[in-house]
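Work Package 3 (structural annotation) set out to generate three-dimensional models for the target panel prioritized at the project kickoff. During this period the team completed the workflow that converts sequence records into discrete structure tokens, so that structures can be stored uniformly alongside our sequence database. As a representative example, we reproduce one entry of 603 residues exactly as it appears in the project archive.
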Amino acid sequence: MHTEFLMGNEAIALGALAAGVNVVAGYPGTPSTEVLETVAKRKEGNVYVEWSVNEKAAMEVAAGAAYAGARALVTCKQVGLNVASDPLMSLEYLGVKGGMVVLVADDPGPISSQTEQDTRTFAQFSKVPCLDPSGVQEAYEMVQEAFELSERIGSPVFLRPTTRVDHGYEAIEVAEQDEWLVRQPEGFVKDSSRWVIFPRLSVVNHAKIEARNASLSDEFSASPRNFVLPGAGECARKGIATHGISYTYVSDNLDEACLPRVLRVGTPFPFPERLAVEFLQGLDEVLCVEELDPVIERALIAVCGRHGLTTKIRGKLTGDVQPSGENTVESVGEAIARFLGKEVPQPQPSDAPQLPVRPPVLCAGCPHRASFYAVKKAMGKRKTIYCGDIGCYTLGNAQPLDMVDTCLCMGAGINIAQGVFHVEPDTACFAFVGDSTFFASGITGVVNAFYNQANLTVVILDNSTTAMTGHQPHPGTGRTMMGEVVQKVSIEAILRAIGLTTVETVNPLDHELAVETVRRVADEPGVKAIIFKSPCVVLARPQATSKVDASACIGCQRCIRELGCPALALRDGKAVIDETQCSGCTLCEQVCPVGAISGGERL
């Protein structure tokens, strides 16, 4: 063993490698992304790693590997689990042979997600056991335990870290590489009575799953991942039940002079009921401190009912803990103080200046800005809807562009545009989707639109990477996570194979041509597509930067008011360019009505 200073996601990856993982598949999404990337970086021997086209594909790839006796890891974030839920729900009924861990990173806040959904609740719904680490060291250890548990019970197992565990750092003890378990999978053994799902098999296996989970509840009650800390002093008849990173926050707020009994739940499903009964004995009331759903609170209420206990259970359902959002040391401290009847700590005044508000914005030189601006100029005042999607380009909703009217989930914009068209056929419908999202979940929307005779313009914003989550490869980049150079999957060829006859590819930084292309294509009937192709400015940054000739600038502010580029500003009534941010994309040069800006280098 040796010590390494690791991010939580890095620790999970090393834990999986130490457990002898054979196959890792996932789809990038904050806060989970670094797990798969670290496996790819640190792996040795015969470990296969892929960024799958989406989470459903990743789940199915991992299932196939587990059928063959391999240890498989799936990585995604909480909204990615929605995409993967179709195979997972059936997979739980069939089971697996090799250990299969489904790493789902939840995002309280949410900091970088559409939802605050709680994978502990999904574990109950899907009947899949769930482990919930409180810190980096425990995450490293728990992923190894999850593989062992999965293999022993023949079921997928959730590992559910949250953002503060995923992105927290800690010096932890990890195994030497020569101590990693080496797995040699048995291979797939044909047995249609086991691997082919039919209703009769599902009925039989459902009963087995319920019995297994009841047994696991007893087993988890004796697990060191679940424990009770004794109370002391005047607060000994009160208790706190908690989990995950919230356990750390609770620990930071405890006072030995008034110490409530504490239940730490590391296996939220199946819930350790026997241990919970022991915890509740002799307590008058319990405060449940958790993120995000009242999972522990509901479980303890049910335990009290089944065992005739009169302990009052408080938490989110009673308004004693905030019902949504991320917990903090301060918010947990306030809730505990109120619960224990102490004075609620007040924030201390600070002389530090307020930090400036920095709303998220498209990078200076981002080709998506040019794409949105071209469509906006082309469509003018026509009745139009702009349906967005999940990616960097969601930031096109901000002023002054204001080019994202809807955003729901990955790939949804294309189908939402169809729905609007069928209700308002006089509306010009546009759907924006990134290249990675097109492969992940956009293709079926185009097929649906073409088949059902919709009238819309699909705009693919192709910057040749998965930019929002850290520039991961995808099928259109021509390289894999294993480092292989492969043939690129052509977006244009896919669109034409579906049946689209109008597919135009244009560089959005050629503003005049881009505007003309949008006007022409938008007027054609049926489903048509424009591929705005220009590399992400973070990966392909020009050497030259644009400069303003102050003597020629007339102070019209058109470049500032219409583009919203963070490199542009106004000083003494004239436009100025911050050369440390400018990428020299030339869009502002093309917009300037008097040619006062020059010097850039268009890619």
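The chain has 20 helices and 24 strands.
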